[in-house]
C-alpha cells in the first residue's frame, strides 16, 4: 500500500517531464530517422561538418518566419513540427534545450554555448557525428533542462 502511494507520488512529480520529452511523431518516424533528416538539413554542403554559418543559415533561415533574425518558441515549434513531424510538445522540449540563454528566443547567443556542448573532441568544430550524438541524447534520454542563466 505504502509502496503504491510512493509510486503514484513519483509519477506525479515526474509526470511533466516524460510527457514532454518522450519522442512522439505524427508520421510515426523513429527518433533515428528524424535525427538523420535534421543533421542532413543542417550540413548544407555535405562535408560532414556543421560550420557556424551553416547552422545560422539553417536555423535562422528556416525557422525565422517573420524575418527579425530571432526564432521564437512559437516559430520553432510550428516549423519543427511541419518539417520533422514531431509532436509540438516534443518540439518544445527540443527548443528548451537549444535555448541556452533561456529567454524564449533562439539567436546567435544560443549557438555559442551549444557549439561548446556539442563539440565532444574539442577541435572547435561540430561534426555531423557530434550533432547526431547530441540529438540522440536528447531524443532518447529525456535530458532534464539545466540552464545556467535564468533570465
Ligand atoms: Ca557542412
Ligand atoms: Ca535564447
Ligand atoms: Ca568537434
Quick take:
The chain has one domain. The protein has 8 helices and 4 strands, in the order αααβαβααβαβα. The chain has helices at residues 2-14, 16-21, 31-42, 52-63, 73-84, 88-98, 108-118, 128-141, and strands at 49-50, 71-72, 105-106, 126-127.
Describe the structure.
The chain has 151 residues and is mainly alpha-helical. It is globular and about 35 Å long. The longest helix is centred in the C-terminal third of the chain and has 14 residues, at 128-141. The chain has one domain (2-141). Helix 3 packs antiparallel against helix 8 (128-141) and helix 5 crosses helix 6. The chain has helices spanning 2-14, 16-21, 31-42, 52-63, 73-84, 88-98, 108-118, 128-141; strands at 49-50, 71-72, 105-106, 126-127. Residues 119, 121, 123, 125-127, 130 line the site of one calcium ion.
Task: Please specify the SSE layout and strand pairing.
Layout lengths: L1 H13 L1 H6 L9 H12 L6 E2 L1 H12 L7 E2 H12 L3 H11 L6 E2 L1 H11 L7 E2 H14 L10
Antiparallel strand pairs: 1-4, 2-3
Helix pairs in contact: 3-8, 5-6
The chain binds calcium ion (3 copies).
Amino acid at each position: 500500500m505504502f509502496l503504491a502511494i510512493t509510486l503514484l507520488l513519483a509519477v506525479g512529480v515526474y509526470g511533466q517531464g516524460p510527457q514532454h520529452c518522450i519522442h512522439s511523431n505524427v508520421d510515426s518516424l523513429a527518433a533515428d530517422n528524424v535525427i538523420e533528416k535534421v543533421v542532413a538539413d543542417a550540413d548544407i554542403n555535405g562535408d560532414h561538418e556543421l560550420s557556424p554559418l551553416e547552422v545560422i543559415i539553417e536555423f535562422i533561415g528556416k525557422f525565422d518566419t517573420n524575418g527579425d533574425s530571432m526564432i521564437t518558441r512559437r516559430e520553432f515549434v510550428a516549423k519543427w513540427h511541419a518539417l520533422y513531424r514531431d509532436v509540438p510538445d516534443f518540439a518544445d522540449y527540443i527548443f528548451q534545450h537549444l535555448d541556452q540563454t533561456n529567454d524564449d528566443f533562439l539567436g546567435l547567443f544560443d549557438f555559442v554555448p551549444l557549439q561548446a556542448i556539442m563539440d565532444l573532441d574539442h577541435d572547435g568544430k561540430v561534426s555531423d557525428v557530434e550533432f547526431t550524438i547530441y540529438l540522440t541524447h536528447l531524443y532518447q534520454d529525456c535530458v532534464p533542462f539545466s540552464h545556467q542563466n535564468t533570465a
